[in-house]
Amino acid sequence: MGFSKEEISKTRKIWSSLWRGIKTVFVLFTMFFSFLLVSAPIFLAIADALLPSALLHRLSPPTNLSSHLLNYDFRHSLIDIPLISIIRSAVILCVYGLCDGPKLSRGPYLTITMICSISSLIYVSLKAAFVFGEPAIGDGGGNYFRAAEVALFLCSSILAIGHIVVAYRTSCRERRKLLVFKIDIEAVSACKNVYPRYQKILQQERLK
Description:
Blueprint: H1 5-38, H2 40-59, H3 65-70, H4 80-98, H5 101-106, H6 108-131, H7 140-207
Helix pairs in contact: 2-4, 2-7, 4-6, 4-7, 6-7
């Protein structure tokens, strides 16, 4: 039993519409992924400023910043971890906003990001040695508190490494853009130099 022409045309329309929908979704996903890659330094800085603070809020009772600073102890207080993350993300975000293409490629953006991230990693590692050098107090609550502390230190360290990776990828991307731009300028300048010579040769041939 064969299909009629109307059924075949309707099936083709359905498949063509489905294929256009798949291509549209793929293009939108590609655009969204490209937007995430381009805006990765901004999103990472926002995450660096918010995530450690949210973890500290789960660890400590709701108190203001002044009380944390007045009762600060390097071996026990954790307020400096989110403060370091906020300062680190603010400095990196300001440098990223002030830099253009050449400075993003091999200028102060990558250098300052690496300095801020590596110095904060060293500080967090030293603090972790003091904090986790003491045994946990209690069984259930102490274990939960210690796991939350580990999550806070890991979050800050991973975000610091993430800043370095994102800055390096951004630098490589900007270098590729500058290389392509340089090639285009050289091609245009070469054409400008060749075109007058070509016109001169044509005039000479016409005179002959």
